[in-house]
Amino acid sequence: MANDASAVFDTLSPAVSKGSLADPFTPPADSSLWRKNFLLGAATASYQIEGAVNEDGRLPSIWDTFSAIPGKVLAGDTGAVACDHYHRWEADVEMLASLGLEGYRLSIAWPRVMDAAGAPNRKGIDFYKRLLNRLKEKGITTFVTLYHWDLPQHLEDRGGWLNRDTAYRFADYADLMSCELAGTVDAWATLNEPWCSAYLGYGNGHHAPGLANDRFATQAMHHLLLAHGLAVPVLRANDPASQKGIVANIGRGTANSDSAADQRAAHLFEVQHNAWILDPLLKGSYPQDLFELWPGTEPLVLDGDMETISAPLDFLGINYYFRTNVASDGAHGFRDVPLEGVERTQMGWEVYPDGLRDLLTGFKETYHNLPPIYITENGMASDDEVTDGRVEDTQRISFLKRHLAAVDQAIKAGVDIRGYFLWSLMDNFEWAFGYERRFGVVHVDYSTQKRTIKRSAELVEKFLQERKAKA
Length: 471
Ligand code: FCB
Known about the structure:
It is built from 15 helices and eleven strands. It is an alpha/beta fold. It has an eight-stranded parallel β-barrel, surrounded by seven helices. The chain has a two-stranded antiparallel sheet with strand order 10-11. Helix 3 (85-98) packs parallel to helix 5. The structure holds beta-D-fucopyranose.
């Protein structure tokens, strides 16, 4: 596609005030976002918001262990308290509903709902029952992720995702949850971002459990995908009315030059970030180029595994944040070549909405069985502060508008995209970056747990009200 999504929109003035006519967010009249069945919601994850890590029988997770190791998380932060959502969930649901958000994507903490022998932990399960029932009472569409990285530590002690048995334990967990929560969940996602679990967790060690070996990464990925594949039929049997899917993070890699070597590097970047997950799910095989990048790392795959992994999905969740500019590393890989003079966020990630559109339209070409898509995460971190009770998160407003425009362009190019979840509902524990990076559309003051609605959330709310009024 030739036109640049970011060029379509006005530069924002920080002076735009509440209620001003110059609305810097509302999509243009011809945007698909005006369709009232395009779901607009927000997302969170258990370890990032819940806190209460020792309460009501919750067991330790790999993130409790990892964040306690000095040097692993910025400023030594941990998820021990986080947004204290475990105690404040009622007010948080009120806040979500008051913003008019139509969907909420949350995750369940596996160590909260099962003991080490695999028996149900009633108190933990009841927490999610209360939460999901309240969300349904409010008319909010619920997307529930079973695994957003908080593996029970006792399973890691037995090898974690390097142990094939963990995939079977995951299927048991999916069984329990779907029996208990059927009827309150509109869509189940088995895993959030297996790339991060496998590569950051076992390949470079930046995330829990902190192991660093490419061969571990490919084997962990295989067991994660197997866990997904084993869980899908269980979810279908226990909760037939809901949708079943998985959430993948995708990365755009662009070549630093026209040279064949750099073009190849960009291709390999996308194989490593996208095809490594999407090929097994949608084609039933691993991309062979992955093993050019990481020679000798083929995982152990048993007969029937690839069929299990590639069973049809009702939806594919896509998380997108940024692009990476790469060049050949002179051997069989790629190296990052950060571009100068581009817009970046507090994470240092480049703002590049075209990447989202281009990847989505590319997937439609590559995968003929591409399921309906939900953008299950998109958003940005900024150094937001409350001034006179307000948070003017100008860059985020522009970011969201441009990325929603990219989604609209992909829809118009024929990609079946049914919804979009902001990451995140509120500032929270941003993994290895702790509490410093603020991704929320609601600000959290961690010393008081006070929530302050940011300007971005007000504008999303305003748009949703207008859309409702038109329907
Ligand atoms: C994604 C994670 C999510 C959040 C965002 C910023 O990789 O799924 O939990 O941390 O990044």
